[in-house]
Each structure stands twice: as C-alpha cells, then as structure tokens.
C-alpha cells in the first residue's frame, strides 16, 4: 500500500476544510430562506455567488500572481468571508422573527465575495505544493480533491441531522454560523501551506500586465476561447440544482401522500448522494483525461447534465420514482467533476506559468461567475413560468427545459471544440 506523503495529508485537510465551509449552507440555504419568508429572494442569494465570481476570483488571482503569495491571499479571503458569514448568522439570531432582507443579504454578499476566489486559490496553492514536492498535479491532485467533496458531504449531513435547541440546522441560521467558524479556521491553516511564487518583472510592464489582465490574452488562442465560452455555457448548469433541488423536493410535502417520505423530510441528505458520487468520480479523472482527452471528458460531463435534469423531471418521492432521484444524484458526480476538475487541470497545463493563478481566476469567472449568474437568473425565470406563475404548476417541465439546454450545449461543443492532441497532429 502506497504511503501518503506529508504534503498530501496537509493538502487533504486544506481541501476538506475548503468545501466544508461551502457545504454547511449551500444546498440548505434555500430551505432556510423559504422558512423565514424570503422564498422569492432565493434566486438573488444564489445569483450573488455568480455575480461576485465575475470579478473577485480574477482580482484575487492577480493579487496572488503579482503582489502577495497565494497562500496569504487565501488566508485573507477566508478571514473576511468567515467574519461576514458569522455576522450574518448572529444578525439572524438577534433579530428573531424580524429578519430584514437588506442587512442579511449585504453580510452574505460580502462573505461570498471573498469565499468564491478561494476555490481557484486552493487549486493554485495545491498545484504549487505538489510541484515543489516533485509530484504530478494531474495524477496526484484528484485523489486529494476527493477529500474536498468528503468535507462538503460531512458538512451537509451535519446540517441535515444536527439539531440545536430542537431546530435542525438546515432550517436555522446556525448553518451560517457553522460556515463562518470553519472559514476562520481555514484562515489560520492556509498560512501553513508552502510559499507560492509571485512574478516580479524587472523590466517595465504594460498596463495589462500590471493589472494582471494578461490572462485574457488566452482568448486570442481559438481553442482557449472556445473552451472558455463553453465553460460559461456549462457553468450555467452548476447552480440550477443548488438553488432549486431542495425547494423542488420540499414542494412534494404539500401532497399528504409524500409529506413524510425520506426524500422530503431529509432532502439535504438525499442530495448529499450527489457529493458522494463526486468523490468516486474524481478518481476516474486521471484515467479518463489520459485515455479520452479533454474534449471527450467535457462531452461526457455535458450529457451527464442532461440525465441529471431529466431524472429529476421523471422522479417522485415514493417507490420506484425515488430511484430516479437517486440516479440523478449519482450522475451528478460525472456532470460536475468531469467539467470542473478536468477544466481546472486543462487550464493549469496549458496556461503560461506566470499567469496560472490569473488563468484559474478567469476559468472561475466564466463558470461560477458569468455562467452561474446567467444560469441562476434564467433558471429562476423558467421556474417562475413553469411553477410559480403557471395555471398548472409543473416542476417536471422546468427540469426538461434544463435537460434540453444541456443537450444543445453538448452538441455545439462537439462541433466547435477540437481536442488539443488532435490539433497538434
């Protein structure tokens, strides 16, 4: 049995904490907001994650490339994010039944503005640490990244099952406080990571180079341009189930026949199967990347999203319909990992070394920024049309529309993107 190195163990803990911060509230926030009368505002909380990702990951990537070592930027971001998220939880606790949208949304927005860049920064810190230790990120990072998903799952399950003063965390502001505390722990732990280099040019730099905008020159490369555009289109799928899966499952509670099924009462635990699948699928990435190449791996992801949404549309909380919900969660592992992790590795391998952090930030901008923003708001419009404003509400129709979108994106990607290895030949 292969012995796990010291640096691998340290990076495992880094990834575990990173995604535990997110898992504490991401899939259950909509349920809590609905419970305090902010159901119509759910889409804005999730859209904000995309809005801040349009510029914050790129700015923090610039800072990490040019001015401050990446592990220190990571610590700074988690410090600010943790304080703001903890403050949002304390605000809800002290406000009782008089929680107002503006102060809660403001504190939440500050927190996610500084949290979202940390996803790319953790990748940069990990790649640097592995390369310094003489390891290959393509082979050695995916098994480490698995523990990030484990951290997400553990956080989700704690939020689902743990009760404080008789109230489950998934229905309480305590999920926000839990996330804030974990972020502050990671603020300190990040400082123990190996130092990351910064690029300090001795010659006079252009304005674009000074601002760290050199990563945008990657769009001059046709393959990179196509890759980033489709990353944005596929990124639109990422927040749809985060924002609406729990709300969708909870809606079955209005039917007495489904109200006490496991899928309705423990929707957060059911959704956690998606992350469990994710941990297993990450291990397939090194094999699939080498065997199929980035194009086929991305195509597998795109058509997995078709099944992810389609199974939700066909399923129901009772037997055998609930099996389709479970299949949707299993397919999610392929849909998410084969796009998000493989895409990050593709950027790391093909972007120039001096702008890798900025390039990772650009990838985040296109996926969790522009893609997630447009996707969340468009999904909100679809759900409004099919469910909230429809004479005959139909969640199934909404899921089928999302599945059709993913299918079209997959077909267009197959036509437009050339596999890098074939392009070289």
Write the layout of secondary structure elements.
Layout: H1 6-23, H2 29-35, H3 42-53, H4 56-66, H5 70-95, H6 101-132, H7 137-161, E1 163-164, E2 167-168, H8 174-189, H9 207-210, H10 222-235, H11 238-251, H12 262-265, H13 267-282, H14 285-314, H15 321-350, H16 356-388, H17 395-416, H18 420-424
Helix pairs in contact: 1-6, 1-7, 1-8, 2-11, 3-6, 3-16, 4-5, 4-6, 4-16, 5-6, 5-8, 6-16, 7-13, 10-16, 10-17, 11-16, 13-15, 14-15, 14-17, 15-16, 16-17
Briefly summarize what is shown.
This protein is an all-alpha fold and 425 residues long. Helices cover 75% and strands 1% of the residues.
Give an overview of the whole structure.
There is one protein chain. The chain contains 18 helices and 2 strands. It is mainly α and 425 residues long. It has a single domain, classed as Growth Hormone, Chain: A. The chain has a two-stranded antiparallel sheet with strand order 1-2. The chain is globular and about 60 Å long. The chain starts with 5 loop residues before the first helix and ends with a helix. The model has no long low-confidence stretch (mean pLDDT 86).
